[in-house]
């Protein structure tokens, strides 16, 4: 599981071929820098859980989720664990054994309530980061929308985000990520020992 912060109106930098006399090159962009946080969780079998979205705002507008092709939910850390991860993965866990949840060390993942709920439901949190191409695909969607003069806001964000995650979270890509890190299939030699050694002291000056 990982949380990705996306900006609604900022796409990625693009390469352009222009006349050498052109002093300035413009790119159409909405420029909305408001941040939306997305919680994504992927499984070693190549599948992904539905995303959870965290909007900024004092109260929820039901219109934000009206166009919602990826069936996203709106919530926070512990709520995500209780209402999304646990029931969805429990349905797949036919053996009733333990489930491994790989996430980063964000403080919302280390609270007593989060850890207790995980322990009570046979979920073992493991501190590792995942997910990469999604940010690039999202920015490409922003670029395409901007080129068509369509501003992305809270009312249509899920439509464009769904298109980005369809391109980024393919089963082959997800399975490849687990293979490269040696998580599944288990391969202790996938990551060299030098990558997990203590960091070296690189300065002699006092901080």
Task: Describe the model.
The chain is built from five helices and six strands, in the order ββββαβαβααα. The chain is an alpha/beta fold and 207 residues long. It has one domain. It has a four-stranded mixed sheet with strand order 1-2-3-4, covered by helices on one side. It has a two-stranded parallel ribbon with strand order 5-6. The longest helix is centred in the middle third of the chain and has 16 residues, at 77-92. The two termini are 34 Å apart. The mean pLDDT is 84.
Strand order of the largest sheet: 1-2-3-4
Radius of gyration: 20 Å
Q: How many independent structural domains? A: 1
User: SSE order in H/E notation?
Assistant: EEEEHEHEHHH
The largest sheet is:
4 strands, mixed
Count the strands? 6
Q: Termini distance?
A: 34 Å
If helices are DSSP runs of H or I spanning 4 or more residues, what is the number of helices?
5
Question: How does the helix and strand content classify structurally?
Answer: alpha/beta
How would you describe the shape? Answer: globular
The average pLDDT value, as a whole number, equals 84
Which stretches of 5+ consecutive residues score pLDDT under 50? none
Q: Percentage of helical residues?
A: 25-40%
What proportion of the residues form beta strands (DSSP E)?
A: 5-15%
Ordered list of secondary-structure elements with their pairings:
Blueprint: E1 2-7, E2 35-40, E3 52-54, E4 73-74, H1 77-92, E5 99-103, H2 112-120, E6 123-127, H3 133-147, H4 157-168, H5 171-180
Parallel strand pairs: 3-4, 5-6
Antiparallel strand pairs: 1-2, 2-3
Helix pairs in contact: 1-2, 3-4
